[in-house]
Design a protein that fits this description.
The protein is built from nine helices and twelve strands. With about 260 residues, it is α/β, with parallel strands linked by helices. It has a single domain, classed as P-loop containing nucleotide triphosphate hydrolases (Rossmann fold). The protein has a six-stranded mixed β-sheet, with helices on both faces. The protein has a four-stranded antiparallel β-sheet with strand order 2-1-4-5, covered by helices on one side. It has a two-stranded antiparallel sheet with strand order 11-12. A hairpin with a 1-residue loop joins strand 9 (about 210-215) and strand 10 (about 220-225). Helix 4 crosses helix 5 (about 145-155). The structure holds adenosine-5'-triphosphate. Keywords: ATP-binding, Nucleotide-binding, Transport. This is Zinc transport system ATP-binding protein.
Length: about 260
């Protein structure tokens, strides 16, 4: 295993019931990559994330994190996770933005210790990185979906993770703000050196921002640089998705439009 390998899955298979939902997955994520994970609905993307986070155990195969078998791995502060449903606080939720961000430090300081000035500074620094420092004392429920999602990224950043995993983070983010959101992720990757793994349905946009793409449908059908992924043919894509995935080319850019039911 290379020193820079952060996640390593070897021959991983998993089923909840009778049917395999993940089958023979071999995948390595290396330090510094921004990896987009794409695939049709129900293709096992979220389950793969759960396998990486130890939330479910492989039926076959093995998972290693930061060079350690999952069983021995215990430095969970190194991994930040932002889920699909993170941005769903309603307007009555009684917490300020900075309070939400500070909860990201709980595993570091222990649930019953008090937050001190240093922790507040850490939370403010994380809010600055995501461009939300002006909202520190706003109520979390009053923010838009995109703003809430930035706050959840800040919460994941306070423990200085080496790897940030995002499961469809742009769901609920206003279309106008999706590009800005990708730019923020690219900045975290380039400037903060955080390795990113992002599950998305947005196959057109992800290739413009991610360094690498994994395309799965139970097993991995493609894993390579984003540039190479753009060469993945329409026919390959249609076969994988089981229905036409129309590809649109705008100038040099290459965008795909998904036709989901
Ligand atoms: N807790 C569960 N119990 C039983 N089956 C499950 C469970 N979670 C997911 N599944 C099934 O496992 C398969 C893979 O689901 P998963 O959520 O991993 O796919 P996905 O690619 O993330 O899907 P989507 O893009 O629609 O979010 C699906 O058939 C799903 O119905």
């Amino acid at each position: 295993m290379k020193e820079r390998t952060i996640v390593k899955l070897e021959n991983v298979s998993f089923k909840y019931d009778r049917e395999w939902v993940v089958k023979d997955v071999n995948l390595e994520i290396e330090k510094g990559q921004f990896l987009g994970l794409v695939g049709p609905n129900g293709s096992g993307k979220s389950t793969l994330i759960k396998l990486m986070l130890g939330l479910v155990k492989p039926v076959e195969g093995s998972v290693q994190l930061f060079g350690k078998p999952l069983k021995q791995y215990d430095d969970w502060q190194e991994i930040g996770f932002v889920s699909q449903k993170a941005n769903s606080f309603n307007s009555g939720f009684p917490a300020t933005v900075i309070e939400v961000v500070k909860t990201g430090l709980v595993s570091r300081i222990g649930a019953f210790k008090f937050f001190n000035k240093k922790h507040k500074e850490k939370a403010m620094d994380a809010l600055k990185i995501v461009g939300m420092e002006d909202y520190a004392y706003s109520n979390i429920g009053e923010l838009s979906g995109g703003q809430q999602q930035r706050v959840f990224i800040a919460r994941a950043l306070v423990s200085d993770p080496g790897l940030l995993i995002l499961d469809e983070p742009t769901v609920g983010v206003d279309a106008k703000h999706v590009t800005e959101f990708y730019e923020l992720l690219a900045r975290l990757n380039k400037e903060q050196g955080i390795t990113l793994l992002m599950v998305t349905h947005d196959i057109g946009t992800i290739t413009d921002h991610a360094t690498h793409v994994v395309c799965m449908n139970k097993t991995v059908h493609f894993h390579g640089a984003s540039e190479e992924y753009k060469e993945f043919s329409d026919e390959d894509m249609n076969q994988l998705y089981g229905h036409p995935v129309q590809q649109l080319t705008h100038n040099h850019d290459h965008h795909e439009v998904n036709h989901y039911d």
